[in-house]
Amino acid sequence: MMQVLIGYMGSGKSTVGKVLAKNSAKAFIDFDNYIEEKEGMSIPEIFKNKGEIYFRKKETAHLERLLASNPNAIISLGGGTPCFGNNMETVLKATPDVFYLKLSVEKLVARLKTEKSQRPLIKDIADGDLSEFVRKHLFERNFYYLQSHHIISVEDETPEEIATKIIEKLA
Ligand code: S3P
């Protein structure tokens, strides 16, 4: 069975996904990396050279392929993946195990402040405006994220502890 991790930028999807894959002896696929490989460009380059609309089109197309060809993997999606086109529907149909890693705006902002440069959507937002941006953006995206089968509230747990919480839900 496939498990899919979704959540806002900076929620730890890739880090947790790697631990989860190791602990359950499954393959791990980071969807952003998958897109980068298929497109032969980094995500910041795709946004810069082709624009967000192009990225979202490719994201949807690659998502279908990824899900169809990896029925047994642990997959972490991009923060925006569930929120465009019919992507969330597609994901929910592919597996009964969609997990939303839910963090507070405060925690997300604290992390994202130090990791802005590789994230085209926030790289030009001043630190002082980030909290307002994330609060609004998360409010819009929650409509999609909250359709997940499982919501994992993350506070100060380590990636190992979060992976354990996820495995417990599967049992
Ligand atoms: C995006 C999140 C990114 C990446 C792209 C757009 C978003 O993934 O797909 O920069 O719309 O939230 P991460 O959540 O892995 O940073």
Q: Write down the oligomeric state.
A: single chain
Which ligands are bound?
shikimate-3-phosphate
Largest sheet features: 5 strands, parallel
Q: In the CATH scheme, what's the topology name?
A: Rossmann fold
Spans of at least 5 consecutive residues whose pLDDT stays below 50 are: none
Structural class: alpha/beta
Explain what this protein looks like in three dimensions:
The protein is an alpha/beta fold. The protein has one domain (3-166): P-loop containing nucleotide triphosphate hydrolases (Rossmann fold, 3-Layer(aba) Sandwich), CATH 3.40.50.300. It has helices at 13-23, 31-39, 43-50, 52-69, 87-94, 105-113, 127-145, 159-170, and strands at residues 3-6, 28-30, 74-76, 98-102, 150-153. Strands 2-3-1-4-5 form a five-stranded parallel beta sheet. Helix 2 crosses helix 4 (52-69). The longest helix has 19 residues, at 127-145. It is globular. The two termini are 12 Å apart. The site of shikimate-3-phosphate has 9 residues, from loops.
Summarize the structure.
Helices cover 55% and strands 11% of the residues.
